[in-house]
Sequence to fold (294 residues):
Amino acid sequence: MSVLSIQNLSKSYGKIQALNNLSLEINEGEVYGILGPNGSGKTTTLGVILGILHADSGSYQWFDGRYGKGHRKRIGAILETPNFYPYKTAEDNLSIISHIKGVKTNNYDQLLELVNLAHRKKSAFRTYSLGMKQRLAIAATMIGDPDVIIFDEPTNGLDPQGIAEVRQTLTEIAASGKTVIMASHILDEVEKICSHVAIIKNGNLLATGSVGSILSEDVTIELQAEDMSALQNLIESVPWMSKSKIIADRLEVQMENSHSVAEINKLAFDRGVTLTHLVARKQRLEEEFLEITK
Fold:
């Protein structure tokens, strides 16, 4: 079931084209990552679909139009830095958010438990670390039990522990069946959290689909031999291996996933090439992203 349909959105700021005929389809239950370098149009996209910014052209529709103008009540969002009253507690701040949203709720303990802040619910917001502030903002987006949660760079500026905590929280929210839309420039974050991804650059959509379909099915092989020249010649003669390049003192190649590391090892042995290093790894989103955006 469609949650969000974006059709040919364009938006410019003077001579800068932030979005250029962007079209996306996001379905119920997906954890959808909008991935791109800084300045690629991610935040502009979120601003438009939340009604904060006006597009120059194009259109978008939430929930196939089922809720009309009331669709915004079914969406929770964090854009940029979360703002709360610094001297008020987590409970008090969530109560204020409930009032602003017009939602009657008293499940603050449950929300704070979800974001691992129950033990600090009586602490003033100003005493929180950056990661804790971000997790409280996530709890605030969940008030009113929205169908869709939107995050803009949710781990921006956090230390490794904060990143891990926010990632765990987002994973739990996604597992509950909510649709999550997340803009990020951090490849590892998208790869670990998202089921689907759209890669944009300079406002242009370069690729979209499930994370698995974006990633090449080929396997990356790292090779090293006593005679690197002989190894290079061997690889170039094998039709099911391609894209060879030397990184540091090792040869990195792409192997079709229908073949195995054992075949490479036997082939090298039969040709008299002594391997000193042989490691296989699946293609990562980072490599595919650099390939798509270069």
About this structure: Residues 2-214 form a domain with the Rossmann fold fold (CATH 3.40.50.300). The chain has two domains: 2-214, 219-293. DSSP finds ten helices and 13 strands in the chain.
